[in-house]
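Encode chain A's predicted structure.
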Amino acid sequence: MVKCSYCKLEMKEADSCTFPYLVDFKQVHYQRSKVHFKEPGGRCGDCSIKHGGIHHFGCDVERCPKCGYQLITCKCWGKNLYLVSVLPKGTKAKKACHEKKFPSD
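Encoded structure for chain A:
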């Protein structure tokens, strides 16, 4: 069994990661990606969450909410990225830039 290092859920069984926000060094909160490719069986081919769920951190499929490229390889975050499960009171998260279309790879 492989568990997500953040939500601690078993990745093959969980419908979604429970850490829905990314925070940058300026304390700007972003909604994490829910975009999926067309995997057979309705689950992500890498982290195994269901379509419409939030990828487990480190998933190859998850996109960066700032630039839209693969999160684990983009340069938007460097070492200044962390995940949170709840927004601070009065804070709104920015929507991912790619919710309607992907940049070309």
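The mean pLDDT is 82.
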